[in-house]
Write a structure and sequence with these properties.
α1 runs antiparallel to α2. Helix content is 86%, strand content 3%. The chain is rod-shaped. It has one domain: Up-down Bundle (Four Helix Bundle (Hemerythrin (Met), subunit A)), CATH 1.20.120. The longest helix is centred in the N-terminal third of the chain and has 74 residues. By secondary structure, it is mainly α. The protein has a two-stranded antiparallel ribbon.
Length: 183
């Protein structure tokens, strides 16, 4: 074999190898581009879903916290002085509002059960038991005395603990710093 033939055959082989490598590079690039586009679409969809659900979750927590504050007032303060000087017992405020609050919860319960992750849903169910226990204590007495006040405070401790658990879990659910740091 002559050196010219070796060069020609070697040249043809190197051209073929270069051509095949180019095809492989184009195929890989195409696959990666498609995957990146699919991931971009999924991220956009996830972001839109997150933003939509964020409003519902914040509304949920707002209602939860309103109920918490209502219980807190009853457990910690006997009466609130109005601007006109008249005092209103916090237990009367609670009793006047509780049926409306229950009605508001009934309106959003189905949405909550779909949106909340299982861990937070279990905390929600625990909170219902705590709020119901508090409500039972409130309804069990018509007057303030030391025994009633102690029962109220004990029932409120359960409400307070479940509120701390709920806040922690919702913060974990809504936390985005880690996600944004990775982008």
């Amino acid at each position: 074999m002559s050196w010219q033939r070796v060069l020609i055959e070697g040249g043809i082989i190197s051209v073929l190898v270069s051509f095949i490598v180019s095809l492989i590079i184009l195929w890989v690039k195409n696959c990666l581009t498609k995957k990146i586009e699919r991931l971009r679409h999924e991220f956009t969809f996830s972001k839109a879903t997150y933003e939509q659900h964020l409003g519902h979750i914040l509304d949920y927590y707002d209602k939860f916290y309103q109920d918490y504050r209502l219980c807190q007032k009853v457990a910690k303060v006997d009466a609130i002085k109005q601007p006109d000087g008249k005092e209103i017992r916090t237990i009367d405020i609670y009793r006047n509002k509780i049926d409306d609050r229950i009605g508001e919860w009934n309106k959003i319960e189905a949405k909550i059960r779909i949106l909340l992750p299982e861990k937070i849903l279990k905390i929600h169910e625990k909170s219902i038991r705590c709020f119901n226990n508090f409500n039972k204590v409130v309804k069990s007495h018509n007057f303030y005395n030391a025994e009633f006040k102690a029962e109220l405070e004990k029932a409120f401790e359960g409400v307070h603990e479940v509120k701390k658990e709920m806040e922690s879990s919702l913060k974990d659910l809504l936390r985005t710093e880690d996600l944004m740091a990775k982008v």
